[in-house]
Every structure is written in structure tokens, then in C-alpha cells.
Design brief:
This protein has two helices and two strands, in the order H-E-E-H. By secondary structure, it is an alpha+beta fold. Strands 1-2 form a two-stranded antiparallel sheet. A hairpin with a 4-residue loop joins strand 1 and strand 2. It is elongated. The relative contact order is 0.12.
């Protein structure tokens, strides 16, 4: 697909086609997600899907930092019990 000097038109580029294109680019490591100024934490894309009802693309990311913090909290709770 070529988006040069043109707007995405509903009749020319369907959202489903864009979703497939984005998914292929992500799988082929052509699009990467990361936090600004944070080399430790990476954004992990869990899913990219097309919502037919809203005619939108939905990207869902894994919150690795929250998972790490939750793990640390659990370890600290276990230590307090001992």
C-alpha cells in the first residue's frame, strides 16, 4: 500500500487491510514499541484487532512494569510473614 500524498479513504483502504498491514509490519519487526527514555521497559503488543462495530483498530499492550511491581509486592508480603 502506498499512502504517499493521499488520505486514507474508506473506499480505497479498508480498516481491515490496514490492520493486516500493521500486523505484518509488527511481526516482521518493522514497527517497534517502547517507552520514551526508558531502555529497561519495552511495550509488548498483546493484540491488534479490528473492531467492526466502531470501525477502529485496537492495540492492547502488556504492562510489564505493573507486573514487575506486583511481583515485588508479593515477595515483600511473603517476607513480612516470616
Amino acid at each position: 500500500m502506498n499512502f504517499r500524498n493521499s488520505k486514507i479513504r474508506k473506499d480505497k483502504y479498508e480498516m481491515k487491510q490496514i490492520q493486516r498491514l500493521l500486523n505484518d509490519l509488527i511481526k516482521n519487526d518493522k514497527i517497534k514499541f517502547k517507552f520514551y527514555r526508558d531502555s529497561f521497559t519495552k511495550l509488548e503488543l498483546l493484540q491488534l484487532c479490528y473492531n467492526k462495530v466502531d470501525n477502529t483498530l485496537e492495540l492492547e499492550f502488556r504492562n510489564t512494569m505493573a507486573e514487575y511491581l506486583e511481583e515485588i509486592k508479593n515477595i515483600m508480603r511473603e517476607k513480612k510473614k516470616d
